[in-house]
Amino acid sequence: MNNKNDGTKASTLNRAKPYQLVLFPFNNGATNVYYILTITYIAYYGNGVLGLTLMFATTMVTAMRLFDAFTDPIIGALIDKTNGRFGKFRPYMVLGNGIMAISAFLMYFGTRLIPESSMWLRYTAYVVVYALYVIGYTFQTSCTRSGQTVLTNDPKQRPTFTIFNLIASMLGMGVIQFLAPIFRAKYGDYTTEAFFDMLIPIAVVISAFLTLLAVIGIWEKDQPEYFGLGDTEQPKVKISEYIAIIKENKPLSRLMVAGAGCKLALAIATNGTVLCMLYGSMMGDYDGLYLPMMIAGYIFSAPFFFLTLRTSQKHGQKASLMRYVSVALVMYVGVLALLLFWKQGVPGVNLSLSNINLYTVLFVLFFGVGYGAYYATADMPIPMVADCSDYETFRSGKYVPGVMGTLFSLVDKLVSSLSSTVVGLAVAAIGLSTLPGGDTPYAEGMKTIVLVLFCVIPMIAWALTLWAMKGYSLTGERMKEIQAINAVRKDAIAKGMSTEEAMNTWKTIDQVPEEYKEIG
């Protein structure tokens, strides 16, 4: 087999400029603003403001993700087929954010104008507007995963998405989490109209601004020259081929399990209702604990941002994800043990920042280190989707980032959305008809619910993540080989060789000229 490049010149890795690495992750920050509104507060609005039944308001979060099972493949195919004047990804980022902004105003302001005498119409409007939001969310969030394929393929640059994404999330989702309890204290609980009157406009503006930054970040790279092997006659992927891709692309299958585990753990452990029961109903001081503990979690996260980045650059993203998910799992064994010892009204076994005791010190330590580790890894699977996309190009010659992104997104969103339904079922199981707020008194059975939701389910999810990652083949070294093979194929195609011939000529790293091995 020919292992020469027929005179083609080795191209360098596609590297992003520093500002591009910093700005593009704000696309995920923009969608996370709406994510936290949906996961944490939309059920409070439906149940508390509109008067919808508790189970309907909570299970609709999951039901709408089932709707995603239909929209995700279609939107992924649309992205892959798009190559217009404004690129492949930018149109969907802007369109998606615009749709979410419209749906937010319709949901949180329009639906309440429907009179109580027409409750059937409230239910209908809630479902229709929610479906509109899902479409917009899928448009924009799919670009987060697929857009990384054009931003950079440098194994040392890709992991930086995680750290910049965490910063973006703090400026987006974190701001909402910070402001929400302040508005709650000022305007009543999370079930008041005044609370949403203040929160929603701020959320829409923040998300739009972050989207603008992300568009600037990807502007120069959203061009055909960065799309896959550079073959202008890219084969079209039919929706029916999704199953084949999942079957053949083993790394993607395992990453979908790992990503779902990470997101489920984060969604349930940080669910607002769970935290209301933990800090308010159990510990008796929601206002004094929620914000300080959230800030403590962010502080503990800071060193893990850099540890995960350094580990990813040195040993690959797989090694980094497994290492720090393991840390979170071990630390939450300590959190679980402390909550098992908790007794209502007994000072020595209660969390209190105004009267610090050994229990508090240990809880903050175990929780802080555990939170820091899993928060730093929660979105780590996202840049790994780009690796799986490059692997698909290596395996089949197809550049289908939209398909890859929406396949991952589908499972990610479906699993994470279970958090609201699980919480709703758990609350209903102990006889409550409304979601607990910060001032809800302790009820029999809450301790068990908190133990399961705050600790046990996240720990199981992390265990599944570790299991899935154990057989994940795209190590740091393997990705260098794949990038080198893709590079030599791309240069050959640019010189006139057909995609099929290039695919058959270079299949393994030993067939690749030395100059290409060096760029990996």
The biggest beta sheet is recorded as: none
Overall outline:
globular
Query: Low-confidence parts lasting 5 or more residues at pLDDT below 50?
Result: 1-10
Order of helices and strands: HHHHHHHHHHHHHHHHHHHH
Give the % helix. over 70%
Helix segment tally: 20
Describe the structure.
With 520 residues, the chain is mainly alpha-helical. The protein is built from 20 helices and no strands. It is globular.
Offer a few descriptive terms.
520 residues; 20 helices
What topology emerges from the helices and strands here?
Layout: H1 18-23, H2 26-49, H3 54-81, H4 90-110, H5 119-146, H6 148-151, H7 160-187, H8 193-218, H9 242-248, H10 250-269, H11 272-282, H12 286-315, H13 317-341, H14 358-377, H15 381-396, H16 401-429, H17 446-470, H18 476-494, H19 499-505, H20 514-519
What's this, in brief?
With 520 residues, the chain is mostly helical. It has helices spanning 18-23, 26-49, 54-81, 90-110, 119-146, 148-151, 160-187, 193-218, 242-248, 250-269, 272-282, 286-315, 317-341, 358-377, 381-396, 401-429, 446-470, 476-494, 499-505, 514-519.
